[in-house]
Amino acid sequence: MAREVAERGVAGSSADGLSVGRFTWRELGPRPPIECSISRVPHSRWARYAPYHYLTAELHQGATCFELYAGGQPAAFAAILHRPHPHATRHKIRGVSRVVTLPDWQGLGLAFALLDRLGGAYNALGMDLHMYPAHPPLVRSFDRSPT
User: Fold this and answer.
1) Can you say whether residue 4 is alpha, beta or left, with left for phi > 0 and alpha for psi between -120 and 50 degrees?
2) Are the C-beta atoms of 64 and 77 separated by less than 8 Å?
3) How far, CA to CA in Å, does 112 sit from each of 2, 68, 101?
4) 118, burial (CB in 10 Å: exposed 0-12, middle 13-18, buried 19+)
5) Nearest by Cα to 36 from 76, 65, 64
6) Which of 18, 34, 46, 71 has the most CB atoms around its CB within 10 Å?
7) 116: left (phi over 0), alpha (psi -120 to 50) or beta
């Protein structure tokens, strides 16, 4: 009975007396804004994020590390490395070594926001920031980025 009511989209009651309502995507509002800040952090901050990264827990000692805070709480981490190039005087390249979002913050686009801001900052300094993501949603988000 409950399934039939839900499929028809009509509010009513199920056989066990629980209320059954109607759900449509249009009834959802936009996500509330999340105030974020980014800081350069010491290499030691990686320890908080390492268990959630799919590669090894090791991080290159030469990495420049950044952390995104959402609502004042640590939420995402990125490590950036220098990428050598044969024409280093013309091509100053940095590469994303690691990017991780803590589980409670995943799905909100925070890793993309972090990398997009870092890319803009490095670009303002005359450097390119490269990343070769394998995660399909991250690839699509980079395709939509104006930077």
Assistant:
1) alpha
2) no
3) 40, 11, 10
4) buried
5) 76
6) 46
7) alpha
Q: Which two tokens stand for residue 68?
A: 């995104």
Instruction: Give dist(CA 128, CA 143) in Å, integer.
Output: 16
pLDDT tens for the chain, residues 1 to 147: 444 444 444 455 556 666 677 766 666 677 788 999 999 999 999 999 999 888 777 889 999 999 999 999 999 999 999 887 776 666 788 989 899 999 999 988 899 899 999 999 999 998 888 888 777 777 777 777 766
Q: How many Å apart are CA 45 and CA 64, to the nearest integer? A: 11
